[in-house]
From TrEMBL, chains A, B:
Protein name: EF-hand domain-containing protein
PROSITE patterns cross-referenced by the UniProt entry: EF_HAND_1 (PS00018), EF_HAND_2 (PS50222)
Matching PANTHER family: PROTEIN S100, S100 CALCIUM-BINDING PROTEIN
Example of a GO cellular component annotation carried by this entry: cytoplasm
Organism: Cyprinodon variegatus
Source organism, top-level taxon: Eukaryota
Keywords: Calcium, Metal-binding
Record-annotated EF-hand domain positions: 46-81
GO molecular function annotation: calcium ion binding; calcium-dependent protein binding
Organism ancestry: Eukaryota, Metazoa, Chordata, Craniata, Vertebrata
Gene3D superfamilies: EF-hand
Length: 88, 88
């Protein structure tokens, strides 16, 4: 399977894992979002204040949950901003 | 390595492979972009007219090339719009 499709499936896994934990199984609640970040990207998780801020940034349409599309867009942007790709 | 970081590295590979082919090694020219799509996501490549349109969409700042950040953002959005994740 092509790299890009494989990468997208890998990105989907943690989203689905944590989305299933509470509320609508297709979106991340704030609690699920925090758990995902702490487990998957601990260096980005920070304290509750930072998590709250990040949740608001991710939740582009302000509906109180994070959709997969919002997650995908924001995680990508976040990793570019955090210089994740600088040394690749 | 965590899934998300691994996925981002996988996403970076085709970008670097085609960016190196011509012009600035850190961005995709239109020709490199077309080659990448045809190889990685043939179902999205379409004809030249569609490729031209997609290139303009990806090239958010209109500088005539596609940066990694533009590529990451647009590929994600494109795959969501094309329903890639519907049956996952």
């Amino acid at each position: 399977m092509a790299g890009i499709e494989e990468a997208m499936k890998i990105l989907r896994k943690p989203f689905d894992k944590y989305a299933k934990k509470d509320g609508d199984k297709k979106t991340l609640s704030k609690r699920a979002f925090s758990s995902l970040l702490k487990a998957e990207l601990p260096e980005l998780a920070g304290d509750n204040k930072q998590l709250n801020h990040m949740f608001k940034e991710f939740d582009e349409d302000g509906d109180g949950t994070i959709s997969f599309s919002e997650y995908l867009q924001q995680i990508s942007e976040l990793m570019v901003l955090m210089g994740f790709f600088e040394d690749l």
